[in-house]
Amino acid sequence: MGSEARAAAGARRSDSTKPAGKKGAAARAKRPVRSGRRGRGHMGLVLAAFVVAAGLMYLSGGTRTHTGTPGADAEIAASRAKLNQMAQQTPVDLDAELKRQRREMLKAKNGLLVDDLEAEKQKILAMTDADWNMADFARWFENTAIVGDSIIRQVRLFHFLDAPVFAEGGIHISVELSLLDEVEAAAPSVIFLCFGMNDVGVFEERVDRYVERYTNVIRRLQASLPEAVIYVCAALPVTPERLAEESKYGYLDLYNREMEKACPEAGAYFIDSSFILEAHPEWYNVDGRHPREEYYPMWLTYLADLAGLNHD
Question: Domain 109-307 sits in which CATH superfamily?
Fold first, then answer.
């Protein structure tokens, strides 16, 4: 090979070892990134299977040397049978098991997945606009149902959420709720029930009737959606001015106390977010009943924190 040929070959080898230029870097940067949520979901199922498998091996004595004794043979056979059974499980089976474990964890913590409720409230009150975004709300609440009256309808009107909101203006727990049919058809895994504001005009001091109707709704949803976790949200207080105009709203505090007592027996969990409006009375609408738009980011974040919806 002549000197010119050897020089050309060397130049080609030198070029092949150079790092990619801006065009190559840009091409790599434009590669689509897979959705982390679905990936984490499947990885969670695989991890759950691995943990269960490891537990079975531990309970059966780990990876011991086979001694040939009848007892060891029986243990190995039993472990193999369990592992074979796990291998035949579908992602749906594993997902159901994870949901069961989550329900047990919620039950142990009385439905609230925070260690310090007062610290959680202070964290919520310290939120700024930089601490929330619509994409997070959509992701956190994608498999939930928020059910209630016009206060809940504003979640959709202000464009915080759409699909998970099942609400009608003026609705109350004392009537047959057609909304429940829609909730059952959606089959959410978490349900937030938000009533009471309009019920005081129906039941007034008959709080026992209110609690009875509310628990009937909870039992209906439990029968049709046995895997769903149900939260009862406290009815929000009204302003002192509105209370002076209509004394019936004075029963709201009694309604909340009695529903909080009834929730454990009914199999539901109670959430009281009234502290937000107590800290920000300026966030009431002019009618003294409905919160303004500023209330909802804190409220939705509080629900997500307590129910563990934002625990990736």
Answer: SGNH hydrolase (3.40.50.1110)
